[in-house]
């Protein structure tokens, strides 16, 4: 996509009509947000949410297709020749019991595969993302006489499991529908003041790998550990050694993280188990650091196990999981164009150039195709509350200001990339 200098004066003429449109529809959008918040659905189970998003797209005049990559929804609005601009929002929630005390707090509970009951909560702002996408769709449709091109709306499932984007692409997102020239998304940001817009050119959020490591040993009686090979002691040693990869192998000044998120092993006080399972997460800003960490994990697991006397046929097994995601990289030219328009129309004082985020998400997969698709990912300030961040059971959003600001940002960003008059 050739990035042209935007006509900021023409685009800023939208401020009045955009503001009026938002105020006229704000009540309905707030109701939509509260409904989505009160009825969250886990990754891969977004049946109700996807139906609502399809309805909102259809009411805005989009041609809608459901069931792409699971519960993914795609809306297409063609308006003459011009760029194809994709706008994406994620739909899924988290397995948390909400503790916000909001009158519209989620009371949803579901049974997991093992029969246990978990709460369900929108603790990452996906309810707002969907609401903003609906509001943006309505405005862009209402001003079709001011732009040319095609808008591709994507309501994506399973972001929290980092699988929804890849499944939508595999299911024909770029072959069944117009292939985007560029893609937009925003994410709520509780570390920015309300209305502030976070941006970055280049790497914006970390790549992540999820690994299952099975540490195997030889079980036995706790009274005779010498007759076996204790995988719990080996696992404990491995966990400490993993951190030396970050402190002694990753070059100073280059980012890498290793987190052991779970340890499962053993069933009885006086019995040494045969194996221990470690759930490990790796984060990085450079592919080279990723490769270094993964190869070092494999080396340490293998040779430490040998030093513990583990037989060759019982060495640790490392398996990469589907929840892995690549770096999210903002196209510099595309991002600069969007930010120029947002600064001119909304005020440069609302712009915040951010450091790369150590969190991860799968929006980057939409651009990691051949040929690549330029992306621009933004953060939307929702207000800073001490000690409360994303994925907290106490995370909440003030909907009126956040919806108003989100629709402004996404609408102007999309117009800056379409052929506007």
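-> sequence recovered:
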């Amino acid at each position: 996509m050739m990035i042209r200098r935007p006509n900021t004066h023409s685009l800023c003429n939208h401020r009045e009509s955009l503001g009026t449109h938002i105020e006229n529809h704000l009540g309905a959008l707030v109701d939509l947000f509260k409904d989505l918040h009160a009825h969250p659905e886990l990754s891969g189970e977004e049946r109700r949410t996807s139906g609502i998003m399809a309805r909102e797209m259809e009411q805005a005049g989009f041609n809608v297709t459901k069931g792409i990559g699971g519960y993914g929804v795609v809306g297409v609005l063609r308006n003459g020749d011009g760029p194809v601009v994709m706008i994406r929002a994620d739909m899924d929630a988290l397995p948390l019991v909400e503790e916000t005390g909001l009158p519209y707090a989620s009371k949803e509970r579901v049974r997991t595969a093992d029969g246990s009951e978990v709460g369900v909560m929108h603790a990452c702002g996906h309810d707002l993302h969907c609401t903003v996408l609906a509001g943006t769709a309505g405005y862009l449709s209402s001003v079709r006489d001011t732009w040319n091109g095609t808008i591709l709306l994507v309501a994506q499932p399973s972001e929290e499991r980092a699988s929804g984007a890849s499944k939508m692409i595999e299911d024909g997102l770029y072959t069944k529908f117009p292939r985007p020239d560029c893609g937009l998304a925003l994410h709520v940001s509780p570390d920015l003041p309300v209305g502030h817009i976070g941006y970055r050119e280049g790497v914006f959020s970390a790549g992540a790998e999820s690994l299952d490591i099975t540490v195997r040993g030889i079980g036995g009686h706790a009274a005779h550990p010498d007759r076996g090979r204790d995988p719990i002691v080996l696992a404990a040693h491995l966990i400490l050694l993993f951190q030396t990869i970050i402190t002694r192998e990753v070059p100073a000044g280059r980012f890498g993280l290793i987190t052991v998120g779970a340890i499962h092993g053993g069933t009885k006080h006086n019995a040494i188990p045969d194996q221990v399972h470690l759930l490990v997460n790796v984060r990085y800003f450079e592919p080279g650091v990723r490769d270094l960490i993964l190869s070092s994990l494999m080396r340490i697991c293998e040779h430490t196990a040998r030093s513990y006397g583990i037989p060759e046929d019982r060495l640790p097994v490392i398996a990469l999981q589907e929840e892995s995601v690549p770096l999210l990289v903002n196209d510099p030219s595309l991002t600069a164009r969007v930010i120029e328009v947002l600064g001119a129309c909304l005020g440069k004082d609302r712009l915040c150039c951010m450091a790369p985020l150590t969190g991860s998400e799968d929006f980057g997969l939409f651009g990691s195709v051949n040929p690549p698709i330029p992306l621009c990912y933004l953060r939307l300030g929702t207000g800073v509350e001490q000690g409360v961040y994303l994925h907290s059971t106490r995370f909440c959003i003030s909907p009126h200001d956040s919806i108003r600001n989100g629709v402004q940002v996404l609408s102007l960003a999309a117009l800056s990339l379409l052929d506007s008059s």
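Residues 8-205+328-420 form a domain with the Aminopeptidase fold (CATH 3.40.630.10).
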